[in-house]
Amino acid sequence: MTIEEILNSGNPAESIISALKEKTICVPFWTGRGGLLQQYDVTKHPVMNKSKYPDIVTDEGIKPVTRIVLDFPRLATKRMTELITGIPPKRVYTPDNDKQKQIATYLENIYTRNRIDSVNIDRCNMLFASCEVFTLWYAVEQRNGLYGFDSPLKLRCRTFSPMLGDDLYPLFDEYGDMIAMSIGYTRKKGRKFVQYFDTYTDSRHIKWSNENGGWAVIEDEDITVVGKIPGAYMWRPAPIWDGTINNVYEMEWSLSRNGNYLRDNSKPKFVVFADSIVNYGDEKSPDKEFKAVMQYPANGRAEYITWPQATENLKFHIDQLRNLFFTQLQLPDWSYEKMSQQALSGESRKQLFIDAQLKVKDESGRLLEFFDRETNVIKAFAKVMLGDNYAADIDALKVETVITPFAITDEKDTINNLMAANGGEPLMSQRESIEKFGRSDDVDKTLREIAEQNSKKDVFGNSYE
C-alpha cells in the first residue's frame, strides 16, 4: 500500500495512525520492560532493584546494603561520540565555477548558523544509545542576511529521538526508500498532557491530536518548498554497548557484595587474650588524663585485630571484566589511571587509537548516508531561498562529508610533515602566526616593531641599538 492510499483511504484516524506505525525495521525499544533505558540509566540496574537485592531488616531498623553502580553504557556512548565528533565532521565542496563557490559558502553558513557541530554531538549520543534519530529542517518566514545573502526564509533544525521522549515511525517502500516519517510525542497543554502524531511525506504534512478524546486532524498542509521529506533519519540495530551489559552487571554485583563485607568487618576489634576477666573501657578522654593504665595477667595480652581480606582476587576479577568491556567494544580506556600507568611516547600513544579508528570506520557508513541526505534537504531549501537562477548550480555542486576519527596528534610533527610536502615553504604568514599565538593586543603594531628591529640589524645579525 502506498502512502497516498494510506492517507486517503477514508478510514478513521486511529486506523490511519496504526498503519503509519507499522515498522519494517527492527529497532530496540528505549522505554518499557527490557528497554535500553534500563541498561543506560544506572538507577535502573539490577543492583539498584530492592526486590532483587533488598535491604536488611534488623531489630534496630532497616540496614541499607551497599549498592555500587558503573555508568559504563553511558561512558561507551560518550566515548564513541567523542571519537567521531572530537574532530568535527567536515563538508568538502567541489565547485566548478564562481557561482558554485558562492553557493558552497552560503551552504556552510547555514550549517554554521544552526550550530551543526553541537547538533552532531547530540545526534551521535542519541544514535549510539537509543538507536534512532531524526532531524527535521524547517523554514521560518523572516527576511535576514545571516547566510551571506538576502533571504526571505530563516532555516532551522530540530532533532527527535526516543531519548527525548519521541516515538519515530519511518515508513519504507519495497525498494527501501523512505516514503513517510511519523513522529509521536506528548506535550503539556494547560493542565493536561496531549498526544500528537505528525506525518511528513515528500508533498504533505499532517498533524493529529487526541486533545478531545479521539484522534483528529488539526493540521494538513502541502509541502511545496523542498519537494521531499524535509529531514534525515538514521538508525542502528543495537546500542553501542551491545553484548557487554552482563559484564557490567557482574562488576556491580561483585563490588556491592564486597562492600557489605568491608562494612561489617573493616572496623578494628580490640581483643584481650587472658584466662581471667580484665576490666577495660572506662578510661577517661585524653583531655582529662595524659596516660591510661591497664593490668593484665602475666601471660595475657591485648591487641587490635583487623580482617585479613583477600582483595587481590576481587581486583583481578574487576580489572579483567573492565578490560574486556573496552576491548570488545574497540573503545579506548582514557581514564587517568590507565593512561598514567606507564610513560608512553607521543607515537606510542597514537598507536592506542588504531582499534578505535577502525571502529569509527565501521560506524561511519550510516552517518555519511545520513549527512548526505541532510545536505540534499538543505540544498532543496537553498534553491527556494536563492531563487531559480541558482537552482542548476545548487544541484550540480558536489558536497562530501568527511569523518576524521579523533586521535592524539603532535602539532609539531604535523607542521614538519606539511612543510616537507610543499618543499620547505612556510605554511602561514607572519601576521597569521602572531594572530594564532594570541598574545598581541595590536597585531599591526607588533609587525611594525618586528620590522623596525630587523631594519636595525646589519648583515651579520648585529644590532645597532
What can you see in these coordinates?
The protein is α+β, with helices and mostly antiparallel strands. Helices cover 39% and strands 20% of the residues. The chain contains 15 helices and 14 strands. The chain has a five-stranded antiparallel β-sheet, with helices on one face. The protein has a three-stranded antiparallel β-sheet with strand order 5-4-11, covered by helices on one side. Helix 7 (245-265) packs antiparallel against helix 8 (312-329) and helix 14 packs across helix 15. The longest helix has 33 residues, at 354-386. The chain starts with a helix and ends in a 10-residue tail after the last helix. The mean pLDDT is 86.
Task: Describe the structure concisely for a colleague.
With 465 residues, this protein is an alpha+beta fold.
Helix and strand arrangement:
Elements: H1 3-7, H2 13-20, H3 37-40, E1 56-58, E2 61-63, H4 72-85, E3 90-94, H5 98-113, H6 116-130, E4 132-144, E5 151-160, E6 167-172, E7 178-189, E8 192-200, E9 204-209, E10 216-222, E11 231-235, H7 245-265, E12 269-273, E13 301-305, H8 312-329, H9 336-339, H10 346-351, H11 354-386, H12 391-396, E14 398-402, H13 411-421, H14 430-437, H15 443-455
Antiparallel strand pairs: 1-2, 3-14, 4-5, 4-11, 6-7, 7-8, 8-9, 9-10, 12-13
Helix pairs in contact: 4-6, 7-8, 14-15
